[in-house]
Amino acid sequence: MAAPPRSRDSAGTRKTPDTEERLMSSGTVRPVTLETADILERVDKLGPAIGAAADTIERERRLPPDLLERLREAGVFRIAFPRAWGGPEMRLEDQIRMIESIARHDASAGWAVQILADSGFYAGQLPDDVAREIFPTIDLATAGAWIPPARAVPVPGGYRLTGRWPFGSGVRNADRVLCGAFVYVDGEPVRDADGEIREHLAFLPIEQVTLHDTWHTTGLAGSGSTDYSVDDVFVPEEHLFTLRYEGREGLPPLTRSADVLALNGLGVALGLTRHVLDDLLDLARTKVGTDGRPIREEYRVLAGYAEAEARLQAAHAYVYEVAGEFSDTLWAGGVLTPAQRARGVMAGVLTADLCRDAVLQALELVGSKAVFSSGPFDRPLRDLMTISRHIMHQRKSYEQAGKLLVQGAARHVFA
């Protein structure tokens, strides 16, 4: 059933049942506080609706509007906003738990939400008054990329931005779009004192961005990770910022390190794999083999299922251990050490390896049922193969972990 239409104030700000109608003097909407437990409970209750929409999500290559609004009402896009903004300032392990819950029903939805929910992190990169101008409510969704950088040309009061970016996961459902750019003057890139090209990020309203229908993929079709572009768009100077990977003190915990951006996405592979193993368990309990015996009595099924479970549980334990360590450090006011940052990178690669092995083992056990596109195993397999191609899950990212462990530094974690 479609969600009722949302009202807007005179400035066009979206209002939801969890947003007070009264505006603060700054023009921002004062949110009703939702705690972490509230959001997790709401997301869990949305599970059946997400699963029911899975075919639509894949066919339309985006989250349908009614589901998007129900997720917004559940509070998923406010999770990274600090307490001072009325956000829950959700710990990283709880963010992973939320994404895992969504991905158990549809991996594309989980992938899109883990990116759309980064608004609070990016808001913290800006001066507070500028951030509140860009994000007048904490329920706005964010998507975008900073690689490859576009061109930002200085003009009075700001910059003119031109460029095109691929892999804009979630951009078809976003309210604000991130655009990375190098600064150019007279056709030449501007370099800082260290010799690096000066790089900035900017947020634009979705209305100023052109979307290109390029996302036709084997898996994660519903994530809407399409190309997008801008052409000579003006960005006020104060709206530009630099993404910093090194830790910063004196800021809310979720803004102190850009390494937090990758962690909640690990819940997608975990949730998808749990979905597959649950389906395998149901099949193992009911299927009868060609010899007339229940397959639940076969050694290969019993041992194979246990081994797949062990792989998933190992990935799960490592991811949550790393996330908990990140949270403990950041919430205590500290900064992440190179060794901690390396563990975050290693968790991404190891999770993909273990989850992929678990799913492939499950498919071997189900036999011919794995080959039918109408069956329960087709989409999860395609989604997982696509997830594994993301840089945070590729084995070459171990190099970045090695730089952090051996050399003590890495300019970008996922370069």
Question: Could you explain how this protein is built, in words?
Answer:
By secondary structure, the protein is of the alpha+beta class. The strands form two sheets. Strands 3, 4, 5, 6, 7, 8, 9 and 10 form an eight-stranded mixed beta sheet that branches. The protein has a two-stranded antiparallel ribbon with strand order 1-2. It has helices spanning 36-52, 54-60, 65-74, 92-103, 107-116, 119-123, 128-134, 260-263, 266-286, 299-331, 338-366, 378-387, 398-407; strands spanning 19-23, 29-31, 142-155, 158-168, 176-185, 188-189, 199-205, 210-212, 226-236, 240-241. The longest helix is centred in the C-terminal third of the chain and has 33 residues, at 299-331. The chain has three domains: 28-134, Acyl-CoA dehydrogenase/oxidase, N-terminal domain (Butyryl-Coa Dehydrogenase, subunit A, domain 1), CATH 1.10.540; 142-241, Butyryl-CoA Dehydrogenase, subunit A, domain 2, CATH 2.40.110; 253-407, Butyryl-CoA Dehydrogenase, subunit A, domain 3, CATH 1.20.140.10. One of its GO terms (molecular function) is acyl-CoA dehydrogenase activity. Residues 53-115 form the Acyl-CoA dehydrogenase/oxidase N-terminal domain.
